[in-house]
Amino acid sequence: MVRFVNIFIFCVFAGIPIGSLAQEAEIIEESPAAESPKKEKVKRSKNKSIKRGGFNVFRGFLSQFNLGVSTGYGATFYRHDLKGFGVYQPEGGTNVYIFDQAFVNRDTLPVIYSDWVNNPIGIGGLIIPVDTLSSPIITNGIPVFPGDIKFGYDSIRIGYKSTTHNIPFTITLSMDIDRYRLGGGFTMEFHRMTKFRPTALTDELHSFKTNFSAATFKKYFGYVGITTYESWKYKMLADIEFGKVNRGKNFNKSLISSGLYFNFGYTIEKKYSEYFNLFIRPSIEWKSYTVAIPETSLEVNHRQPAIYIKFGATIRMPELARCPVKGCKIQINHVHGGKEYRSRIHPLWKWQNPKYGQNHPVPMRNKGKT
Length: 370
Known about the structure:
mainly beta; three-stranded mixed sheet
């Protein structure tokens, strides 16, 4: 500023045109010493005489996407509604059966169903209707003995619950557009099943296990996120996953129907470079499915809310190709033979200072100085 004022006063007294002053100011502003790293990068990219080594349209397109991988822990809370059903537990038995509540007052149940969590199977005989449902003829039915337990939903709202432990493995592909992140992904989730415990009459009813101890769920989902905070080192997003669940071979898909699932999360990313981030994502999820009971118009609705904590990494393909000169030690983006390359010695997981790279945070010329 002082230099500019001195030049201006000299021009006034010496009669030099002010236009020369503007040219001098332009020279000062465009001098390399006054350039910021950002301006230098823009100027270099606009220099048409410099070609980008190994660069093509496909690579430039891929460099816009973030590839993410993650794992973690989850817990799924199974609960269901047995409205319209009765619960039957044989004395000394280890299983819990359901039946049509219309027959709750009879001493012989026409059909009872096992494995009604995933693949209901009918056990029993035939119903021969006479004139009303209250007086049918039942052949080869299931007799109810005095030591057996039998309840209807209308008298006691009986249900069962269980908490399974989940290990998810997720891969995502996303793109950042301004404050938004759009993408999709796939999750392979391993469930370890636990006992289903009664929610009422816990002294009389016992717990039961499903006919499988583990299950593998597959999830296909879309993803939308919005940035709530961003700094040089951190980025935070509120986001949602939504998609479909394939519950695996243990579930009878011909009897099961389900809609979309929704997973609401908050992602906290730490940026290690322009291309590499680590993140943690806590979330809650809502999903459910309905099991149709064969040869009836009844169905059981199973709710499966869940919580997760995931951690993982994202990586992005660099736009510039790696320097092909084996002995080159330059850390920053640079030019060989009129082509621009990125450093071959600077790792993708470290920040690159536009002036000198950053393999070593302090330049050699400044080491030992305070």
